[in-house]
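Exercise: predict the fold of this chain.
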Amino acid sequence: MVKKIWKKIIFEMRMQIMDARWRNSMLRSCWEVYPPSFYYRYTPEEQRQIKDKHFAEIRAMLEEFEGNRL
């Protein structure tokens, strides 16, 4: 049990380090929408669902913005 918890802690630390490095590189150039940990934590199908949900929310905000401009 302790070994399982320890592995989880190590995994989370690695994800945080990886995401921190990604955030620092954002200042230079990075074309990924989500941090690297996103791609480790979710299956490709879950990634598609999450991306579709987020992009739908963004489209709705844009449509609302366009409606308010008129």
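Check your answer against the key: Helices lie at 2-25, 36-41, 44-69.
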